[in-house]
Amino acid sequence: MTPQTIIILSSIGILAGILSGFVGVGGGIIIVPALVFLLGLTQHEAQGTSLFVLAMPVVWLGLMNYWKEGNVQWKYGLIIAATFFVGAYFGSKLSLKLSPSLVKFLFGLLMALVSVKLILSGYQSIVANED
After folding, report:
1. Number of structural domains the chain divides into
2. pLDDT tens figures, 79-90
C-alpha cells in the first residue's frame, strides 16, 4: 500500500468520523462513494469495506457475506476505522457549536451532492453497459 493510498484512506476515515459525529452519517454516504471515486474500488468492495469499518458488532452478518465473495479490503477498513474514531470526536464538537437548523441544512446539502454524483455515475455506467 502506497503512502498516498494511506493518506487517502486516513482522510476518508477522518471525514467520515467527523460527519458521523456532526450529523450521524459516515458509512454509506461518505466511505462508499469515496472508496469508489478516489480509490477505484468496485461498488461491492466499497460496501464490504465500509461494513468492515462499522462492523463492531452490528453488521457482522452482512460483512461475512461480502467477505465470502471477496469484496472486503481489510487493510483499507482498518485504517479508516482508526481515523474515523478521531474524526467522530471533532465532528461532534463542531456540530454542538452550530445551530440545529444549520446542521440540518448542511446535512441535506451533502446528501444532495452525493446523490447527484451517484446518479450520474450510475447512469453513465448503464448507458455504457459496464455491468
Report:
1. 1
2. 998 998 899 899
Is residue 22 one of the residues assigned to a domain?
Answer: yes
**pTM assigned to the model:** 0.66
Residue 61: inside a domain, yes or no?
yes
CA distance 39 to 16: 15
Question: Residue length, the chain?
Answer: 131
- Please check whether residue 83 lies inside any domain of the structure: yes
Q: Can you read off the three cell numbers belonging to residue 59?
A: 453488521
If you write DSSP's letter for every residue of 9-29 in order, what string do you get?
Answer: HHHHHHHHHHHHHHHS--III
Residue 86 structural domain = 3-97
Domain-located, residue 71: yes
C-alpha cell at 45: 468492495
Please name the residues in contact with 18: beta carbons below 8 A apart, sequence gap of 6 or more.
87, 88, 90, 91, 94
- DSSP letter at 103 equals H
Cβ count near 124 (within 10 Å): 10
pLDDT, tens digit, for every residue of 3-12?
Answer: 999 999 999 9
Query: Taking Cα atoms as reference points, which of 43, 66, 42 lies closest to residue 54?
Result: 66
